């Protein structure tokens, strides 16, 4: 693990509720640059909500979220440049790919992020091509995402995130729906990501998935760390 001294993410006593459902109940944690962190816990324990909060899609009702020393809240995220910087820094693959994919084809999906970053057409095409090849998506690159299988959608969502070359990768139940070959590929990829000194946060029920690579595992129960 590289750069272990750099505190990247810090939550202090964070509470969050969806209308009448409390989801995070006093979460405090620290994640350092380059760490590989597992998030486990039963269904409904708050894993996906925690990832949503770390990605600035919801904000703490109380408590504090600091990313690289800057507070993430509705005020700071109103600044569109600041919000864009967060979404470039963190690549987030949702648990449900259907809510992540919205373009007309797989290739457009993979090109979307780099285009939003303002890269040249040439650079956008190069990045998308590289990721499409790496994930073996050439055969489906012109197909609309809503016609793909669950596993193909998941790979497309992952490709769309990787083409932005994020510093931090957050995966929510990444192996769901993937075939054996893709699971093996993703397992190897996570190790390479770690070796590159980049931060990885993975929510999963499957403890074996992180065996040998997680620096720490955070277990949630009813929105609390146990
Ligand atoms: N959009 C939402 N609106 C209202 N309540 C929600 C919403 N999303 C999640 N919840 C509730 O918040 C709590 C935490 O849910 P969350 O999705 O974070 O759990 P999880 O640990 O990811 O579960 P799973 O293992 O099933 O993916 C649960 O009680 C859930 O019912
Ligand atoms: Mg979840």
Strand content: 25-35%
Q: What's the CATH H-level homologous superfamily?
A: P-loop containing nucleotide triphosphate hydrolases
Instruction: Specify the overall morphology.
Output: globular
State the secondary-structure class. alpha/beta
Distance between the termini: 24 Å
| Biggest beta-sheet profile | 6 strands, mixed
CATH class: Alpha Beta
Mean pLDDT, all residues: 94
**Uncertain stretches of 5 or more adjacent residues:** none
Number of helices: 7
Ligands, ions, cofactors: adenosine-5'-triphosphate, magnesium ion
Specify the CATH architecture.
3-Layer(aba) Sandwich
- Determine the CATH topology: Rossmann fold
The helix content, as a percent range, equals 25-40%
Rg from C-alpha positions? 17 Å
Strand order of the largest sheet: 6-7-8-3-9-10
What is the total number of structural domains? Answer: 1
Tell me the number of strands: 10
Describe the structure in your own words:
There is one protein chain. With 226 residues, this protein is an alpha/beta fold. It has one domain: P-loop containing nucleotide triphosphate hydrolases (Rossmann fold, 3-Layer(aba) Sandwich), CATH 3.40.50. It is 34% helix and 27% strand. Helix 7 (180-195) links the parallel strand 7 (168-172) and strand 8 (199-203). Helix 4 crosses helix 5. The radius of gyration is 17 Å and the shape is globular. The model has no long low-confidence stretch (mean pLDDT 94). Residues 47-48, 95, 172 line the site of magnesium ion (MG).
């Amino acid at each position: 693990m590289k750069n272990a001294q750099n505190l990247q993410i810090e939550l202090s006593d964070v509470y969050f509720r969806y209308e009448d459902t409390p989801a995070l109940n006093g979460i405090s944690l620290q994640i350092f640059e380059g760490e590989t962190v597992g998030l486990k816990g039963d269904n409904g324990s708050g894993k996906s909500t925690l990832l949503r909060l770390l990605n600035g899609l919801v904000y703490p009702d109380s408590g504090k979220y600091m990313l690289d020393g800057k507070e993430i809240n509705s005020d700071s995220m109103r600044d569109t440049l600041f919000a864009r910087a967060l979404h470039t820094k963190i690549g987030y693959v949702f648990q449900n790919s259907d809510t992540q994919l919205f373009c007309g084809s797989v290739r457009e999906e993979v090109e979307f992020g780099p285009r939003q970053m303002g890269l040249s057409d040439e650079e956008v095409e190069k990045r998308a091509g590289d990721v499409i090849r790496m994930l073996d998506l050439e055969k489906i690159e012109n197909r609309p995402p809503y016609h793909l299988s669950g596993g193909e959608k998941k790979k497309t969502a992952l490709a769309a995130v990787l083409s932005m070359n994020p510093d931090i990768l957050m995966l929510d139940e990444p192996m769901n729906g993937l075939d054996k070959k893709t699971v093996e590929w993703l397992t190897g990829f996570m190790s390479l990501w770690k070796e590159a000194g980049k931060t990885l946060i993975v929510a999963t029920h499957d403890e074996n998935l992180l065996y040998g690579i997680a620096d720490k595992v955070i277990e949630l129960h009813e929105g609390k760390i146990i």
